[in-house]
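**Backbone description:**
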Amino acid sequence: MKCVIAGGNVKVLGRAVHSLSRIGDELYLEPTESGLSLRAVNSSRSAFASFLFAPLFFQLYEPGSAGPDTELFRCKVHMKSFLGIFRSLPSLEKSVGKCLILLKPRASRLVLQLHCKYGVTKTHNLAFQECERLQAVFDTQRCASRLCAPARVLAEAVVHFPLTLAEVTLGTGPGGKISLRNYVEEEAEPSKTMVTELWLAEDEFQSVAVTPGSNITFCLKEFRGLLSFAEASNLPLTIHFDEPGRPVIFTLDDTVLEVHLVLATLSNLESNSQSPLTNGVSHLPATSDDFPDDLESYMIAMETSEGGVEGPPSPTFPLCTPPPAESEPEEDEEEEGAVPGTPPHKKFRSLFFGSVMTPGRPGPTTNQEVLVEDSDGES
C-alpha cells in the first residue's frame, strides 16, 4: 500500500487518529479498493469506531495488489506509536505539506514520512502485526429512532457536563424535545447526587424521527472524541438508536469520508422479557438449556479458517457467519454484572464482532469463537 496525503487533509487524518485514540489501544489499518480504513475497538468490545477515507481524499492512493484467492494486506499498530506522529495538530497545519504512508509487508514496517517546510523530512518506521478483520455488526436501517444535528449544537450541549462524567442519557420528551442528562445509578442517594439535564428543541436538529418516550444511556468519553472531529470538520452528526440494550450508531458522511461510531447502551432489565431481533444479523434461535434469555442471541462466532460460509452482509462491513458453535466452559469466573473496560461495572451489552483471517495466508485451521459478553457478565 502506498498513499500520499497533501495539504489540509494531513490535519484531518490527525484529527481522526485523535478520535480513535479515545476508543482503543490498537489501530487497525485496512487498505481496500474503496479507500483506507482506520478502526479501533476498546478492550470490552463495547465501543467501535471506523474511519473510511475514499481514494479522492489522497493525492495518490495505491491499495496494493491481491491474488485471486487472497485479500489485501491489513495490519494493526500500537495506538500510542501512531498517535505520536500526529500529536500536535497545530504544528501539522503549519509545517507539514505532505504525508506519505507506505506499508511494507516483507519488511514488517509501516513507514510514515512527513514532508515539512524547508526540505525537512521526518521518517517514522512503525512495527506492525498482521491481523484478522474485526468488525462491528449493525444496521442503521433497523433502528427505530434517528436524529441529525450540526455537531456544534451537540458539542455545546455536552460541554455542560464534567469531563469526569462516564455516561449520559439521551431521551425524547413531549413536543419533540430531546434531552441530555447525566446518568445516575439507582443505588445513589438522591440528596448527594447532582443531576444536570438539558433540553434541545426540535428546530435545533436538521431532522428528527424518534419513538416517543425512548431513551438510551451510553458512554460520553468516546462520544466527545467523535464530536471534536465532527465539529472541526463542520459535518452534521446522525444518531441512530433503538431501545435500551441495543447499540447506538453515530455516523458522519462526506464525499471523501465515512465515519461510524458504535457504542453499547445500558440494558433495561425490564425489557429483557421481550425477544428483540439482533441489530444487524438474524436472530439466533435460543434453546431452553443453553440460552436462558435473549441476551445469548447477541453472541456470534466468526469463521477464522479458509473457506468460511458467507452470511448476510452488513451495510458497511461484510460478514462471514458460520452456524452457531457449541459453548465451551469458562476458565475464569468474573464478578457478576461486571464488564471489563469502559464502562466499568455496568450492565452494558457488548457489541458484535467477528474476525476473519485473510484467505491464502497462514492462520488457524480450526474455527475460533469470538464471543461477546452478555449483560450478566457471562461469555
